[in-house]
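Throughout our pipeline, every protein is held as a single compact record rather than as scattered files. This encoding replaces a full spatial description with a residue-level series of whole-number codes. The remainder of this section carries one protein's record, kept here as part of the documentation.
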Amino acid sequence: MMRRRGRPMMRAAATTAVVVGTAGAVSHHQQQKYANQEAAQQQQAQEAYDQGAAAAQQQAAAQPVYVEPAPAPAQIAPAAPSIDMEQLKQLGELHTAGVLTDEEFAAAKAKLL
């Protein structure tokens, strides 16, 4: 058998250094690749959000705002005449006292109401 010449420890150290250096470079490249992919995904998500927000604003601006119309003057009902409760009580008292007949009380009551 032939024995290799040289220093085996030095060769092992050099090989280890090459392997570690290569692994480090590959790892760094992979980290950059993943970071770029994540940044691209975030940018796409932001663009999609911005487009959706712009579309929602356009849609909101395009839709007419409903404002309830004011009633026309002809549609306003005339105010009901207020009933004077004091006069109605006086009529009732007069009727109870016998001053007014049933017919007179009914006529006066209808006039007030």
Summary: Residues 7 and 41 are 51 Å apart (CA to CA). The chain has a mean pLDDT of 80. The radius of gyration is 50 Å.
